[in-house]
């Protein structure tokens, strides 16, 4: 029987998942997802192949579990950050900054995994990231309700906005990343019709 780490079976399982996910992330950065096998990840994590199958039955199951784990951690951080912002325009700025920073530093994405997942797996992957875009939709709805942005059809707007802030930061760092954040934020705010004062503070639109 394998040695239990942690104070309970649940904690043991969580710690084993963290170990396996960490090994997966390192290997993916070195080789890419397509070249990985479950045996590779098990070896890097110091887990026997038999034990590995107790946690994940195949590579796709592992990739999707890792995606869900990382996305949930990201959304949790995002929710905490947004809660500290007083108005929806500042929340939108924070969302763009976090999203571009995440894209610049993380390699896990629906696009990165699309070539190695089944059709069902790709659907699950997009379901995992849905809470992220729900946060953005909530920000925009509040901004429109409180007259920081003009009313628009969010069903039309969301795909355009998601595409704009999901494609600009891969591989960027330092000043180049900061510049991408600055330019993207300014572009999005102008495109949405936000009004700012001379100090960059958001202003409400006139009541209709």
Radius of gyration: 20 Å
Strand content: under 5%
Number of extended strands: 2
Instruction: Supply the number of helical segments.
Output: 9
What kind of sheet is the major sheet? 2 strands, antiparallel
Q: Which consecutive residue ranges, at least 5 long each, have pLDDT under 50?
A: none
User: What general outline do the C-alpha atoms trace?
Assistant: elongated
Assign a percent range to the helix content: 55-70%
Order of helices and strands: HHHHHHHHHEE
Which structural class do the helices and strands define? Answer: mainly alpha
Give the CA-CA distance, first to last residue.
70 Å
Describe the structure.
The chain is built from 9 helices and 2 strands, in the order αααααααααββ. Helix 5 packs antiparallel against helix 7. Helices cover 68% and strands 2% of the residues. The longest helix is centred in the middle third of the chain and has 27 residues, at 119-145.
Describe the secondary-structure layout.
Blueprint: H1 9-31, H2 38-45, H3 49-55, H4 59-83, H5 88-105, H6 110-113, H7 119-145, H8 154-164, H9 174-192, E1 195-196, E2 202-203
Helix pairs in contact: 1-2, 4-5, 4-7, 5-7, 5-9
Quick structural gist:
Residues 14-74 form the HTH tetR-type domain. This protein is mainly alpha-helical.
Which tags fit this structure?
208 residues, mainly alpha, DNA-bd_HTH_TetR-type_CS
